[in-house]
Specification:
This protein is 54% helix and 17% strand. It is an alpha+beta fold and 643 residues long. The protein has four domains: 3-24 and 199-408, Up-down Bundle (Rhopdopsin 7-helix transmembrane proteins), CATH 1.20.1070; 36-182, Immunoglobulin-like (Sandwich); 429-461; 471-634, Alpha-Beta Plaits (2-Layer Sandwich), CATH 3.30.70. Strands 1, 3, 4, 6, 8, 9 and 11 form a seven-stranded mixed β-sheet that branches. Helix 3 (184-219) packs parallel to helix 10 (374-413) and helix 14 (511-527) crosses helix 15. The chain is flat. 36% of the residues are buried.
């Protein structure tokens, strides 16, 4: 056996050893039984799989009253790390009891991180009432209580209160119900990390698509077209599976949401088969094997038609084994070509090893052989990202090989012209160097001018005392955001605030201390904000303004109250003596219309600000439009008096 054969065998053995180690690592363990989960205010994340009890309703005939009256022995305790029962047609009832033993109210978010469940009904039962939530990807996306790709449910416990949750789950997809109880800030911090991971993945895929699309348009090689279509299909499939597509692309098309998973995966199989067939030149082989690439692509097209006509649960059980067989076929073809020799085949084989490993883990998870966890959730994304990157190297190596072959063939015929060509190349190189040098100098000067312009614009928009943006910047950005929110009918909020008794403060301590106070208040305002889109500015004198795009009344009042608290609790001292500082805040929230102007928001926020001062200062007041109703005021402690 030659060296290439030994390398292929070693690679295959290493791959299977790696798969076995991964299986040993992620095999599900048992979880001790527990009747109820004791809620703790200090715990930010808690998986609830070990506290689940379930009943399988094969006939889908039970109601919530029937389920609540079931005897204790009818319930089975979930002993897996996640609730996962593969593909079936039954309705599954789940029960979990959560108690709050603290003497204060606790809020939590319940996340069900499997977004392709068809029907999910949640019954929240306490001693006094029963709340029902209907979820699932068979319902429009905007019916969810929280706008998120997964199913996220807000829960609240009063002091010494116990909630019992019943979940009714029925789906044509795999029955997976991974339940996690989150503290709100911890959930959104974790979610931002997950979104970043997905963003990096989709960014990689987008770059690969654009780069190879330009290469295809330049060289006209069909392999690049098949590759681009394959790379387009993979992220669309994963976006459909992870819920991003339903959230952002087709939130109201529930039937297509199921079909999209089948169609995009089938398209990836079809274009992957055609790419393999052409890239590895399998059409040069003898016998029926030379047609297997076309057979696989044709089978994928048939499944696409089935996906548009037949139920999801029938097609998915056909598609996943078919995709697994195709992955094995393309992988074995790569090993065969690698054994025959060829650097591009080596890159190809390693690339498909990554995708095959991810696909195997995903399939085993869907059929309930492996638990749902971070590795099984992101195995396909990781494998496909590595695969498309390595396939780009393989395509580049293929082009390099063809270029070398053409160059060697031309050498024999062009020996007599070599000296002339060499002189011509030298002249072109000198010309190119001169051109590049000139372009580089022009680009450097252009960059310098752009940097100076940016600095000038930054200086003109920045208040030099506080470091915040100034009134000029506020007027421009407010007009832009007002027009945008008017177009899309989104809400926008303005917070106008004024330091209480600041004139008396200046008279008492002097303008230098007053300037320092303005800087400290500006920092406190920054600490009270959470999103980069929130725009704090110095409105003038001791007045500040915060622009909050895409923010409703509840969110604006939350931000305003947080800013007020940040200012009221900041430690400001004069000659080692603490001096209390507070602000009064007026809040204006509206959905803009063409009948109004953005400047009216400032005047109405100013009215609310004056109402805050009239009500005793150190408080937040919401402007309310129309009628004789006074502005809504958030009461707070009385403002300090400066001596």
């Amino acid at each position: 056996m030659n060296r290439s054969g030994r390398i292929a065998n070693q690679t295959g053995a290493g791959l299977w050893c790696t798969v076995l180690l991964l299986l040993m690592w992620i095999l599900p363990g048992t979880t001790p039984a527990a009747e109820a989960f004791q809620l703790q205010a200090t715990v930010q994340q808690q998986p609830l799989a070990g506290y689940l009890y379930y009943v399988q309703d094969t006939a889908s005939a039970l109601t919530i009253e029937d389920v609540k009256n079931l005897p204790a022995e009818a319930w089975q305790h979930n002993t897996r790390q996640a609730f996962n029962h593969g593909y079936n047609d039954a309705t599954w009832w789940l029960r979990v009891t959560i108690s709050n033993r603290d003497n204060e109210r606790i809020n939590r978010l319940l996340e069900i991180s499997y977004p392709v469940l068809d029907y999910l009904t949640v019954f929240i039962i306490d001693q006094q009432q029963q709340q029902v939530l209907h979820l699932g990807d068979k319902l429009p996306f905007d019916q969810r209580p929280i706008n998120h790709r997964n199913f996220v449910i807000p829960l609240q416990w009063q002091a010494q209160e116990t909630l019992t949750l019943y979940l009714s789950v029925r789906s044509s997809s795999s029955i997976q119900v991974p339940l996690t109880l989150w503290e709100e800030h911890a959930f959104f911090n974790y979610d931002r990390t997950q979104t970043l991971i997905h963003g990096v993945y989709y960014g990689i895929m987008f770059v690969m698509v654009m780069y190879n699309l330009f290469v295809y348009l330049a060289v006209g090689e069909r392999n690049y077209l098949y590759y681009v279509l394959f790379v387009c299909s993979m992220p669309l499939f994963l976006a459909s599976l992870s819920g991003f597509a339903f959230q952002y692309l087709w939130p109201n098309y529930t039937q297509w949401n199921d079909q999209a998973i089948l169609v995009t995966l089938s398209a990836a199989v079809a274009f992957g088969s055609l790419f393999t067939h052409n890239f590895l030149r399998l059409y040069e082989l003898r016998g029926p094997i030379r047609y297997l690439g076309y057979v696989c692509a044709g089978g994928a097209c048939v499944i696409i038609i089935m996906a548009l006509l037949l139920p999801y649960n029938i097609v998915i059980r056909t598609l996943i084994p078919f995709a697994g067989v195709v992955c094995c076929y393309v992988f074995s073809s790569g090993v065969f070509r690698w054994y025959s020799g060829g650097l591009s085949a080596k890159y190809y084989t390693i690339a498909w090893s990554s995708l095959l490993g991810g696909g195997i883990l995903l399939a085993l998870s869907k059929y309930n052989f492996l638990p749902k966890n971070l590795l099984t959730d992101y195995a396909t994304q990781i494998g496909s990202a590595l695969e498309v990157t390595l396939l780009s190297f393989a395509l580049a190596e293929r082009i390099n090989q063809e270029r070398r072959m053409r160059f060697e063939a031309q050498q024999d015929a062009l020996n007599t012209e070599r000296e002339l060509r060499h002189a011509r190349e030298q002249a072109l190189e000198i010309q190119k160097q001169a051109t590049d040098s000139l372009e580089q100098r022009v680009q450097e000067r252009t960059r310098e001018l752009e940097q100076l312009n940016r600095k000038l614009e930054e200086l003109s928009d920045t208040d030099q005392l506080t470091g915040l943006k100034n009134r000029r910047f506020l007027d421009r950005v407010l007009e832009e955001e007002y027009a945008r929110c008017c177009r899309y009918q989104h809400s926008i909020a303005v917070l106008l605030m004024d330091i209480d008794h600041f004139k008396q403060f200046n008279d008492t301590y002097g303008h230098l201390i007053g300037d320092e106070c303005l800087r400290e208040v500006a920092q406190a305002i920054r600490r009270g904000l959470r999103w980069p889109s929130d725009r704090p500015t110095r409105y003038g004198g001791e007045e500040f303004c915060v622009l909050l795009p895409e923010t409703d009344e509840e969110g604006a009042l939350t931000v305003a109250e947080r800013i007020r608290e940040c200012v009221a609790t900041m430690e400001f001292t004069v000659k080692d003596a603490p001096v209390p500082v507070t602000v009064s805040i007026g809040v204006m929230v509206t959905v803009p219309t063409t009948d109004d102007h953005f400047t009216s928001m400032l005047s109405r926020a100013d009215e609310a600000l004056y109402q805050s001062k009239a009500d005793g200062r150190n408080r937040v007041t919401l402007y309310q439009r129309g009628g004789d109703n006074p502005p809504t005021t958030l009461a707070s402690s009385a403002p300090p008096q400066h001596k």
